[in-house]
Specification:
By secondary structure, this protein is mostly helical. Helix content is about 70%, strand content about 0%. The protein has one domain.
Length: about 120
Amino acid sequence: MAPQARPAVTLDLSGFFSKYNGIYFLLKSLQFSGRSLEMGLSYFLYLLAILSVSLGVLNLLPIPMLDGGHLVYYTYEILTGRELPQTIQAGAQIAGLAILGMIMIIAFYNDFIRIFS
């Protein structure tokens, strides 16, 4: 009896990433920058201002690796009168790093899919 062929195992993440179609990273930003520069200096400066404000807002998100996360720590310290334990801070930093890593992976994936499809 001939051995049966096993079905190929594939990992299809397109359904997961399709939920986050609006998240882009460096490549899409460079594409927008090039287009805005072709339109004129005022459009390019406007895009730079929008990107700067967007990065500022992103930095204030309450993710422990970002400034917003430190603001949460300081708020806790003001409200309780004591510092958040180091073990909790370390765990939160790892969780924050994982969140930021996922956001970057999704953004890179969306950029590459958009370019190569």
